[in-house]
Predict the 3D structure of the following.
Amino acid sequence: MAMPDLHMLRESLKPDCANCFGLCCVAFHYLKSEDFPIDKPAGQPCVHLADSYACNIHSELRERGFKGCTVYDCLGAGQFVSQVTFHGRSWREGDVDGARMFATVPIMSQVHELLLYITDILTREIPGHDARLFETLLGELLAFRELPPEQLTGTALMAFRQQARPLFVRLSQHIRAEGLKQDGQTLTSRHEQDRADLIGRNVSQHDVRGTCYRGALLIGANLRGKDLSYVDFMGADVRDLDVRGATLTDSLFLTQMQVNAMKGDRHTRLAPVYTRPGHWL
Ligand code: SF4
């Protein structure tokens, strides 16, 4: 498979709700919580989903307690499942296997998440042999996502994740070390904060450039005004992480959903590829 245009691939990893059958509003199970004010079983359409697959309360989601809907981002998985995997046919059509379609959504979301991480890596300066490893993985993943729904299984996806994980860890270290070197610093053990519990902590007094927060709990923590260059956010829980005035332009493995979950403001700096959340002040 020829190497895809990375810019176009990255752009395709954004939701296109007009070409989706409202899948995130049907497929997932939502529990009544501060993010979603009602219980909704998986596979059942949300009461606010219109016949056109638009949301009837789109402009007032936060006011009505549907904060989670303003944070969720499918990374373009919704329209891919709708238009490619199921050939433009909706779960509302009688002969379409809706249950299969809904089960495919979380798998495709994870595929697109991996694609996002790989494009992030491949648009940076990395050693040639690593670039070739990621290009191979990218080709395999792009071929995988074209498979019919019955072959898009969690087991098959797990094999990709297991293959990718050590590569992501190694390249994260490389990119962070190189970034810090440019700033006259050295990567040390203090930069490794994988899975750290920093809930509600004020981290803003430290220089956190180059830190790995992979899988860390940063809920409600304070990184206000910080330079977050070469910070690895893979899988970090960043709900209400205070990034007002912070610089996220060169952060690593940052998803739009994480950006949406953070507490930013008009002074927060983002790379152009991200959409500035409407709820940031
Ligand atoms: S409230 Fe709107 S966006 Fe949220 S799940 Fe329901 S229809 Fe979808």
